Amino acid sequence: xxxxRIYNPDTLxxxxxxxSHVTRVKAGELLFIAGMLAPGDDFDxxxxxxxxxxxxxxxxxxxxWPNVVQFTTYLVHSQDITKFMQYRLREFPxxxxxxxxxxxxxxxxxxxxxxxxxxxxxxxxxx
Length: 127
Hints:
Elements: E1 3-7, E2 22-26, E3 30-36, H1 43-60, E4 68-75, H2 81-95, E5 104-108, E6 119-126
Parallel strand pairs: 4-5
Antiparallel strand pairs: 1-2, 3-6, 4-6
């Protein structure tokens, strides 16, 4: 099992959302999960589907949310930043009850692989 320490150094200030600034990992294996997409009628439905896909990918390696050490999130519309933050505020405490939220880089891109997709999340986990 990986030794994962997620934290926020006082010198970096408080994060702007449900993430931490630093993850320190001592692991025998790393799991790299491609950016996950999910269809849905709106942003929230796609977000829920994306994180469900990530959950399945983690399970396939015998891992879970506590194994996640970093996310990279891609949004198509900057107007969805607030929706994304609200989703994380609502769902991340269930996924990460210890409140050790993995670091997340949030990027706004022109589009994803198909125009219907609004959000994509890439994940790194330690086993």
